[in-house]
Design brief:
There is one protein chain. This protein is mainly α. It has one domain (about 1-340): NCX, central ion-binding region (A middle domain of Talin 1, Up-down Bundle), CATH 1.20.1420.30. The protein is built from 13 helices and 2 strands, in the order H-H-H-H-H-E-H-H-H-H-H-H-H-E-H. A two-stranded antiparallel sheet has the order 1-2. Helix 5 crosses helix 9, helix 6 (about 120-145) runs antiparallel to helix 7 (about 150-180) and helix 10 runs antiparallel to helix 11 (about 260-285). The longest helix is centred in the middle third of the chain and has 33 residues, at about 195-225. It is globular.
Protein backbone atom coordinates (compact mmCIF):
# COMPACT_ATOMS: atom_id res chain seq x y z
CA UNK A 1 0.00 0.00 0.00
CA UNK A 2 2.77 2.44 0.94
CA UNK A 3 4.52 1.83 -2.40
CA UNK A 4 1.29 2.53 -4.30
CA UNK A 5 0.83 5.79 -2.41
CA UNK A 6 4.40 6.84 -3.21
CA UNK A 7 4.01 5.99 -6.89
CA UNK A 8 0.72 7.93 -6.99
CA UNK A 9 2.34 10.88 -5.17
CA UNK A 10 4.68 11.41 -8.11
CA UNK A 11 1.79 13.29 -9.71
CA UNK A 12 2.71 16.18 -7.40
CA UNK A 13 5.67 16.95 -9.67
CA UNK A 14 3.56 18.08 -12.66
CA UNK A 15 1.15 19.76 -10.22
CA UNK A 16 3.86 22.03 -8.79
CA UNK A 17 5.22 22.77 -12.29
CA UNK A 18 1.75 23.76 -13.53
CA UNK A 19 1.15 25.84 -10.38
CA UNK A 20 4.40 27.71 -11.00
CA UNK A 21 4.33 28.30 -14.74
CA UNK A 22 0.62 28.22 -15.62
CA UNK A 23 -1.02 29.78 -12.56
CA UNK A 24 1.91 31.77 -11.10
CA UNK A 25 0.99 30.62 -7.59
CA UNK A 26 2.26 32.44 -4.50
CA UNK A 27 5.56 31.67 -2.80
CA UNK A 28 4.03 29.92 0.20
CA UNK A 29 1.86 27.65 -1.94
CA UNK A 30 4.81 26.78 -4.20
CA UNK A 31 7.05 26.07 -1.19
CA UNK A 32 4.57 23.61 0.33
CA UNK A 33 3.77 21.90 -2.99
CA UNK A 34 7.45 21.59 -3.97
CA UNK A 35 8.43 20.21 -0.54
CA UNK A 36 5.69 17.58 -0.78
CA UNK A 37 6.66 16.73 -4.37
CA UNK A 38 10.27 16.07 -3.34
CA UNK A 39 9.25 13.30 -0.92
CA UNK A 40 8.14 10.69 -3.50
CA UNK A 41 11.02 11.73 -5.77
CA UNK A 42 13.40 11.02 -2.89
CA UNK A 43 11.84 7.59 -2.48
CA UNK A 44 12.13 6.88 -6.22
CA UNK A 45 15.82 7.83 -6.31
CA UNK A 46 16.47 5.61 -3.30
CA UNK A 47 14.51 2.74 -4.87
CA UNK A 48 16.33 3.00 -8.20
CA UNK A 49 19.73 3.29 -6.51
CA UNK A 50 19.16 0.19 -4.41
CA UNK A 51 18.24 -1.78 -7.52
CA UNK A 52 21.29 -0.41 -9.35
CA UNK A 53 23.48 -1.45 -6.41
CA UNK A 54 22.35 -5.05 -6.95
CA UNK A 55 24.35 -4.94 -10.20
CA UNK A 56 27.21 -2.61 -9.27
CA UNK A 57 27.86 -3.22 -5.55
CA UNK A 58 27.35 -0.92 -2.56
CA UNK A 59 30.22 1.47 -3.25
CA UNK A 60 29.24 2.19 -6.84
CA UNK A 61 25.59 2.34 -5.78
CA UNK A 62 26.40 5.01 -3.21
CA UNK A 63 28.43 6.92 -5.81
CA UNK A 64 25.49 6.80 -8.26
CA UNK A 65 23.03 8.04 -5.64
CA UNK A 66 25.31 10.88 -4.55
CA UNK A 67 25.99 11.87 -8.16
CA UNK A 68 22.35 11.90 -9.22
CA UNK A 69 21.30 13.52 -5.96
CA UNK A 70 23.85 16.34 -6.22
CA UNK A 71 22.94 17.25 -9.80
CA UNK A 72 19.96 19.40 -8.67
CA UNK A 73 22.18 21.10 -6.10
CA UNK A 74 24.66 22.06 -8.81
CA UNK A 75 21.82 23.52 -10.87
CA UNK A 76 20.43 25.38 -7.86
CA UNK A 77 23.87 26.89 -7.21
CA UNK A 78 24.10 28.24 -10.75
CA UNK A 79 20.64 29.82 -10.43
CA UNK A 80 21.72 31.49 -7.18
CA UNK A 81 24.99 32.77 -8.70
CA UNK A 82 23.08 34.14 -11.68
CA UNK A 83 20.70 35.90 -9.28
CA UNK A 84 23.64 37.56 -7.50
CA UNK A 85 23.36 35.52 -4.29
CA UNK A 86 26.92 34.29 -3.56
CA UNK A 87 26.31 34.06 0.20
CA UNK A 88 23.33 31.80 -0.44
CA UNK A 89 25.51 29.49 -2.55
CA UNK A 90 28.30 29.32 0.04
CA UNK A 91 25.79 28.82 2.85
CA UNK A 92 24.01 26.06 0.95
CA UNK A 93 27.33 24.30 0.22
CA UNK A 94 28.38 24.42 3.88
CA UNK A 95 24.94 23.36 5.06
CA UNK A 96 24.87 20.50 2.56
CA UNK A 97 28.24 19.13 3.70
CA UNK A 98 27.17 19.32 7.34
CA UNK A 99 23.63 17.97 6.90
CA UNK A 100 24.75 14.98 4.85
CA UNK A 101 27.45 14.02 7.34
CA UNK A 102 25.50 14.62 10.54
CA UNK A 103 21.78 14.56 9.78
CA UNK A 104 21.55 12.01 6.97
CA UNK A 105 24.23 9.69 8.34
CA UNK A 106 22.73 9.99 11.82
CA UNK A 107 19.13 9.30 10.79
CA UNK A 108 20.28 6.45 8.54
CA UNK A 109 22.06 4.85 11.51
CA UNK A 110 18.96 5.29 13.65
CA UNK A 111 16.73 3.78 10.96
CA UNK A 112 19.10 0.92 10.17
CA UNK A 113 20.27 0.07 13.68
CA UNK A 114 23.36 -2.06 14.18
CA UNK A 115 25.09 -2.99 10.94
CA UNK A 116 28.25 -2.88 8.87
CA UNK A 117 29.79 0.13 7.15
CA UNK A 118 32.66 0.21 4.68
CA UNK A 119 35.15 2.02 6.92
CA UNK A 120 37.96 1.94 4.33
CA UNK A 121 35.92 3.81 1.73
CA UNK A 122 34.32 6.23 4.20
CA UNK A 123 37.64 7.17 5.81
CA UNK A 124 39.13 8.19 2.46
CA UNK A 125 36.11 10.33 1.67
CA UNK A 126 36.11 12.03 5.07
CA UNK A 127 39.84 12.72 4.72
CA UNK A 128 38.98 14.41 1.41
CA UNK A 129 36.48 16.65 3.22
CA UNK A 130 39.19 17.61 5.75
CA UNK A 131 41.59 18.36 2.90
CA UNK A 132 38.99 20.52 1.19
CA UNK A 133 38.50 22.51 4.40
CA UNK A 134 42.26 23.18 4.65
CA UNK A 135 42.41 24.44 1.07
CA UNK A 136 39.27 26.53 1.48
CA UNK A 137 40.97 28.35 4.36
CA UNK A 138 43.27 30.05 1.83
CA UNK A 139 40.57 32.31 0.33
CA UNK A 140 38.40 32.22 3.48
CA UNK A 141 40.83 33.72 6.01
CA UNK A 142 41.27 37.00 4.04
CA UNK A 143 37.49 37.43 3.78
CA UNK A 144 37.12 37.45 7.56
CA UNK A 145 38.43 41.00 7.54
CA UNK A 146 37.09 42.25 4.21
CA UNK A 147 34.70 41.79 1.28
CA UNK A 148 33.85 38.11 0.73
CA UNK A 149 33.33 38.52 -3.00
CA UNK A 150 36.30 40.65 -4.05
CA UNK A 151 38.06 39.58 -7.23
CA UNK A 152 41.41 38.74 -5.61
CA UNK A 153 39.70 36.01 -3.58
CA UNK A 154 38.25 34.56 -6.76
CA UNK A 155 41.74 34.44 -8.28
CA UNK A 156 42.89 32.52 -5.18
CA UNK A 157 39.93 30.18 -5.63
CA UNK A 158 40.78 29.11 -9.20
CA UNK A 159 43.92 26.98 -8.50
CA UNK A 160 42.31 25.60 -5.32
CA UNK A 161 39.28 24.50 -7.31
CA UNK A 162 41.50 22.77 -9.86
CA UNK A 163 43.31 20.88 -7.07
CA UNK A 164 40.01 19.83 -5.48
CA UNK A 165 38.64 18.52 -8.77
CA UNK A 166 41.84 16.54 -9.38
CA UNK A 167 41.56 15.09 -5.86
CA UNK A 168 37.94 14.19 -6.52
CA UNK A 169 38.86 12.26 -9.66
CA UNK A 170 41.63 10.40 -7.83
CA UNK A 171 39.44 9.42 -4.85
CA UNK A 172 36.50 8.44 -7.04
CA UNK A 173 38.59 6.22 -9.31
CA UNK A 174 40.30 4.64 -6.29
CA UNK A 175 37.00 3.89 -4.53
CA UNK A 176 35.38 2.49 -7.64
CA UNK A 177 38.34 0.14 -8.12
CA UNK A 178 38.08 -0.99 -4.50
CA UNK A 179 34.39 -1.72 -4.79
CA UNK A 180 34.65 -3.30 -8.21
CA UNK A 181 36.69 -6.12 -6.75
CA UNK A 182 35.29 -6.14 -3.22
CA UNK A 183 31.49 -6.06 -3.19
CA UNK A 184 30.04 -7.28 -6.47
CA UNK A 185 27.15 -9.68 -5.87
CA UNK A 186 24.56 -11.45 -7.96
CA UNK A 187 21.32 -9.42 -8.30
CA UNK A 188 18.42 -10.70 -6.21
CA UNK A 189 15.34 -12.13 -7.84
CA UNK A 190 12.91 -9.36 -8.79
CA UNK A 191 15.57 -6.65 -9.04
CA UNK A 192 15.26 -4.08 -11.79
CA UNK A 193 17.72 -4.29 -14.64
CA UNK A 194 20.64 -1.86 -14.52
CA UNK A 195 19.24 -0.02 -17.55
CA UNK A 196 15.82 0.38 -15.91
CA UNK A 197 17.41 1.54 -12.64
CA UNK A 198 19.55 4.16 -14.36
CA UNK A 199 16.57 5.26 -16.45
CA UNK A 200 14.44 5.91 -13.38
CA UNK A 201 17.38 7.64 -11.68
CA UNK A 202 17.73 9.99 -14.64
CA UNK A 203 14.01 10.80 -14.78
CA UNK A 204 13.73 11.31 -11.02
CA UNK A 205 16.85 13.51 -10.93
CA UNK A 206 15.59 15.71 -13.78
CA UNK A 207 12.24 16.12 -12.02
CA UNK A 208 14.00 16.85 -8.74
CA UNK A 209 16.07 19.56 -10.41
CA UNK A 210 12.96 21.34 -11.69
CA UNK A 211 11.06 21.03 -8.41
CA UNK A 212 14.10 22.10 -6.38
CA UNK A 213 14.55 25.19 -8.54
CA UNK A 214 10.92 26.15 -7.96
CA UNK A 215 11.24 25.56 -4.24
CA UNK A 216 14.48 27.55 -3.87
CA UNK A 217 13.04 30.53 -5.73
CA UNK A 218 10.11 30.51 -3.32
CA UNK A 219 12.31 30.09 -0.24
CA UNK A 220 13.48 33.69 0.02
CA UNK A 221 9.95 35.11 0.16
CA UNK A 222 8.88 32.29 2.46
CA UNK A 223 11.83 32.93 4.77
CA UNK A 224 11.13 36.65 4.95
CA UNK A 225 7.51 35.89 5.76
CA UNK A 226 8.58 33.88 8.83
CA UNK A 227 11.47 36.20 9.75
CA UNK A 228 14.50 33.98 9.02
CA UNK A 229 17.95 35.27 7.99
CA UNK A 230 19.26 34.66 4.48
CA UNK A 231 22.22 32.64 5.80
CA UNK A 232 20.00 30.37 7.91
CA UNK A 233 17.66 29.82 4.96
CA UNK A 234 20.62 28.82 2.77
CA UNK A 235 22.57 26.72 5.28
CA UNK A 236 19.63 24.84 6.74
CA UNK A 237 16.49 25.00 4.60
CA UNK A 238 18.05 25.14 1.11
CA UNK A 239 20.68 22.55 2.08
CA UNK A 240 18.12 20.07 3.43
CA UNK A 241 15.59 20.60 0.65
CA UNK A 242 18.21 20.60 -2.09
CA UNK A 243 19.43 17.22 -0.84
CA UNK A 244 15.98 15.81 -0.07
CA UNK A 245 16.37 13.06 -2.66
CA UNK A 246 19.59 11.74 -1.11
CA UNK A 247 18.26 12.20 2.42
CA UNK A 248 15.15 10.20 1.75
CA UNK A 249 16.96 7.59 -0.32
CA UNK A 250 19.59 6.89 2.34
CA UNK A 251 17.01 6.63 5.12
CA UNK A 252 14.74 4.31 3.14
CA UNK A 253 17.68 2.07 2.25
CA UNK A 254 18.90 2.01 5.87
CA UNK A 255 15.42 1.14 7.13
CA UNK A 256 15.53 -1.92 4.88
CA UNK A 257 18.69 -3.04 6.65
CA UNK A 258 21.28 -1.95 4.09
CA UNK A 259 23.42 0.24 6.38
CA UNK A 260 26.48 -0.17 4.18
CA UNK A 261 24.85 1.44 1.16
CA UNK A 262 23.03 4.07 3.25
CA UNK A 263 26.20 5.30 4.95
CA UNK A 264 28.04 5.28 1.63
CA UNK A 265 25.34 7.55 0.18
CA UNK A 266 25.54 10.04 3.06
CA UNK A 267 29.34 10.36 3.11
CA UNK A 268 29.74 10.19 -0.69
CA UNK A 269 27.25 13.02 -1.09
CA UNK A 270 29.05 15.20 1.44
CA UNK A 271 32.44 14.51 -0.14
CA UNK A 272 31.07 15.29 -3.60
CA UNK A 273 29.69 18.64 -2.44
CA UNK A 274 32.99 19.66 -0.80
CA UNK A 275 35.39 18.32 -3.43
CA UNK A 276 33.34 18.47 -6.64
CA UNK A 277 30.24 20.69 -6.47
CA UNK A 278 31.94 23.63 -4.71
CA UNK A 279 34.97 23.88 -7.04
CA UNK A 280 32.89 23.14 -10.14
CA UNK A 281 30.47 25.97 -9.31
CA UNK A 282 33.41 28.28 -8.58
CA UNK A 283 35.22 27.51 -11.85
CA UNK A 284 32.07 27.87 -13.97
CA UNK A 285 30.44 30.73 -12.06
CA UNK A 286 31.95 33.39 -14.34
CA UNK A 287 29.65 32.13 -17.11
CA UNK A 288 26.52 33.24 -15.22
CA UNK A 289 27.96 35.82 -12.83
CA UNK A 290 31.04 37.68 -11.66
CA UNK A 291 32.82 34.61 -10.28
CA UNK A 292 32.19 32.86 -6.96
CA UNK A 293 35.10 32.87 -4.46
CA UNK A 294 35.17 29.89 -2.08
CA UNK A 295 35.49 32.32 0.82
CA UNK A 296 33.47 30.87 3.69
CA UNK A 297 32.58 32.36 7.06
CA UNK A 298 34.29 31.09 10.23
CA UNK A 299 31.14 29.28 11.39
CA UNK A 300 30.85 27.52 8.04
CA UNK A 301 34.44 26.23 7.98
CA UNK A 302 34.37 25.18 11.64
CA UNK A 303 31.07 23.29 11.37
CA UNK A 304 32.12 21.46 8.20
CA UNK A 305 35.41 20.35 9.78
CA UNK A 306 33.70 19.38 13.04
CA UNK A 307 31.06 17.34 11.19
CA UNK A 308 33.76 15.39 9.35
CA UNK A 309 35.59 14.78 12.65
CA UNK A 310 32.49 13.38 14.40
CA UNK A 311 31.66 11.16 11.42
CA UNK A 312 35.24 9.81 11.31
CA UNK A 313 35.01 8.77 14.95
CA UNK A 314 31.67 7.06 14.35
CA UNK A 315 32.60 5.01 11.25
CA UNK A 316 36.21 4.21 12.19
CA UNK A 317 35.46 0.71 13.55
CA UNK A 318 33.35 -0.31 10.56
CA UNK A 319 30.09 -0.63 12.53
CA UNK A 320 26.86 1.36 12.59
CA UNK A 321 25.08 1.72 15.95
CA UNK A 322 21.77 3.38 16.70
CA UNK A 323 23.11 5.44 19.63
CA UNK A 324 25.82 6.86 17.39
CA UNK A 325 23.10 8.02 15.02
CA UNK A 326 21.35 9.87 17.84
CA UNK A 327 24.71 11.47 18.72
CA UNK A 328 25.21 12.76 15.18
CA UNK A 329 21.66 14.13 14.98
CA UNK A 330 22.20 15.87 18.34
CA UNK A 331 25.38 17.49 17.05
CA UNK A 332 23.49 18.64 13.94
CA UNK A 333 20.91 20.26 16.22
CA UNK A 334 23.72 22.23 17.86
CA UNK A 335 24.97 23.30 14.42
CA UNK A 336 21.48 24.54 13.47
CA UNK A 337 21.39 26.65 16.64
CA UNK A 338 24.84 28.06 15.78
CA UNK A 339 23.64 28.94 12.27
CA UNK A 340 20.52 30.58 13.68
CA UNK A 341 22.53 32.74 16.09
CA UNK A 342 25.31 33.67 13.65
Amino acid sequence: MARRILWASLVLTPVVIVARFAFDAGATVLFVLAALALLPLAWLIGEATEHAAEHTGHGVGGFLNASFGNAPELIIAFFAVADGLPNVVRGAIAGSVVSNILLVLGVAMIAGGDGRVDARSLRWQLIAVFGAMLLILIPSIPRWSGDASRHTLYLLTLPISAVLLAAYLFITIRNLRIHRSADREEPKEGSWSLRKSLGWLTVATAATAVVSEILVHSLEDFGHAVGLKEFFIAAVIVAIVGNAAEHGGAIVIAHRGNTELATEIAISSSMQVAVFVAPAVALLSWIVGAGLPLSFRVVEVVTMAAAAAFATLVVWDGRSRRWEGFLLVGVYGCVVVAYFLS
